[in-house]
Amino acid sequence: MAANLDKYLDLFRDKKAFAHVATIMPDGSPQVTPVWIDYRNGRIAFNTARGRVKDRNLKEGTRIALSVQDPDNPYRYVQVRGRVAKVTEDGATEHIDALAKKYMGVDKYPFHTPQEKRVIYEIEATSAQGM
Questions:
Q1: Domain-by-domain residue ranges, the chain?
Q2: Which residues are within 8 A (CB) of 47 and not within 5 positions of it... i.e. 6 or more apart?
Q3: Residue of 82, 96, 11, 84 whose CA lies nearest to 47
Q4: What is the pTM of this model?
Q5: CATH code, residues 6-130
Q6: Is the Cβ–Cβ distance between 120 and 91 less than 8 Å?
Q7: How far is 123 from 86, CA to CA, in rounded Å?
């Protein structure tokens, strides 16, 4: 069952709030990475490059956790647990450009390299708690 994120949607849609995404390494140890986020298709979404650690740790169905702190009020946050619902390269370059606009105020993601393949992860939240 999907978790209700309604009172936190501003953190995903409007604010320059970073999510700290936790994945599990093949040896069972945790790995945490800050990422830019948004909310699309009723899911939390983030973008990364193929081959990075989080990309290697994630596939559709993988369990994942993340936390997001309100940049305007550090005592307001949400922690989310869920599953990777969708992984796609379709539209991923446009998505990272849109995130760059939101977070950096630029039209194009400035760190893109020609050999880099971008990928979008959509997360279905199954539980959420916060303040």
A1: 6-130
A2: 35, 36, 92, 95, 96, 99, 118, 119, 120, 121
A3: 96
A4: 0.93
A5: 2.30.110.10
A6: yes
A7: 7
